User: Fold Chaperone protein HtpG from Flavobacterium amnicola.
Amino acid sequence: MTTGKINVSVENIFPLIKKFLYSDHEIFLRELVSNATDATLKLKHLTSIGEAKVDYGNPKIEVKIDKEGKKLHIIDQGLGMTAEEVEKYINQVAFSGAEEFLEKYKDSAKDSGIIGHFGLGFYSAFMVAEKVEIITKSFKDEPAAHWTCDGSPEFTLEPHTKTDRGTEIVLHIADDSLEFLEEYKINQLLTKYNKFMPVPIKFGTRKEKIEQKKGEFVEAEDKDNIFTEVEVDNIINNPNPAWTKAPTELNDEDYKNFYRELYPMQFDEPLFNIHLNVDYPFNLTGILYFPKLGDNIQIQKDKIQLFQNQVYVTDNVEGIVPEFLMMLKGVVDSPDIPLNVSRSYLQADGNVKKISNYITRKVSDKLKSLFNENREDFEKKWNDIKIVLEYGMLSEPKFYEKAGDFVLYPTTDGKYYTLTELKEAIAPTQTDTNGKTVVLYASNNEAQHSYIDIATAKGYQVILLDSPIVSHLIQKLEADNENLVFARVDADHIDKLIQKEETQISKLSEEEKEKLKGSIETVVPKENYSVQLEALESTSAPFMITQPEFMRRMKEMSATSGGGMFGMSHFPEMYNLVVNTNSELASTILNSSEDAQKELVKQALDLAKLSQGLLKGEELTSFVKRSFETLK
Assistant:
């Protein structure tokens, strides 16, 4: 038997590991199962190139709980270790066997799926164990070895009687970590971290019904005896998940099944998927799904899972996946993403930016092909994906460059245009006297219906832009498209929004207009409304409330930017009250008594507020009572 001290540079590394190196204790199981997977894949590679003269077979990894003995076992059938290798790899802390192996076989092992970046992975066992044993037998014709350490720098290393190839790690679970002896806890961790590991992982057994009279004709009374229950290995992982296969091997149902496997509690089908598969200048595979999103920009993120050679790392993929795609779901797997020792956080690296750019390009290309192949279907899905695409146009210049090919602008009556198509469609009718093409838009089809109705009666198109970031988006579109301006349909009277040569003459004299304005301003609250007299068609609404485009847009942009833009989110709501001097009501107000004027103005103002959804609470109750009074 050999005894000795572990070669570390501090007196006792284990408290350091337990307290500082790994912030999350549960990842010990991920590290140990990952090491077992490494050992198995290494053997597979060595047998494939003829360096290991053994039968690879169908190895699996087994995780066993011994609750009574307070032990947790991780057993593999990989290449194992000799006593000399135990001394080298286990006792010389921070020396990664995986990295040395990759260096030695870097050309032939490039695609073998061996996980690097382990470093101190094995020592994470001491986060939950007061003592750790390694019982290992190398594929080489050498005796088995038994290593034991109780969490101090001292260890023992002695021969063992183990005859079968592979390694067994035995964790003597500490009293403060007994939860890791519970079946539900281990099952939970294996499912979280090792669900798609490339080697089958056995955790207990399960009952399975098998047909015992296969192919035989069975009498009706014997049908209950067709099946018999047998105990089979409970394999908790899928070693060949969809993202590891070529897109040509998968159909639509395969992608949907994998989505259900990833999100078993998600009942909505994904709208479509994007398969990532690149091996130069970096390695990256994965599948991203567009779920139904609607207008909710605050929808829960962290739904994309990051893997490294099928080992789960994190669901915080910030930096790898472009920010606007963080609302998607799915899997990204890359051995080229650098991780720290706990594999929990990304480090700054040139590859990460390349990966992010690649994903952006891949998503853009997929959206363009979906649009070109079946535009009608793409239009049906538009409301469920638009928030992602509009956000992408604002946050990713490379995406913005390509977005013109597939981003849509729906009209209030159900047509869909790209921006180029829209400009061509509206230029003949919606170009004003200054040569500006005016895009009329509504943010709410119902609330702004009366304004939409006025605009469409003139033959104008009104598009529906109802996402919360629309003010930022149209600001960008205006900046990038000369002589194109956006105006919400309720920002002013339609004749003011799209000014033409013809002008209306007011029926009222300047003196009458001043008198009318004074009468109205005695009733209308000045802190919220600015009264504007306009000579409009006599059939136009007598009173109309509008909200100036610039002020409203700035307030909306401020609200979606954390309220900081010029402090405008704190400004009170300001509206214009447009009074049509050519309406019969204007003349009636002028020719009425002072008390009657107040009643008429109050009623007309409330009707205008009602059409904008601004009449609420006590004011609405009072208006309804007053209106019923006039019916008596």
User: Anything to note?
Assistant: The domain at 242-380 is CATH 3.30.230.80 (Ribosomal Protein S5; domain 2). The radius of gyration is 35 Å.
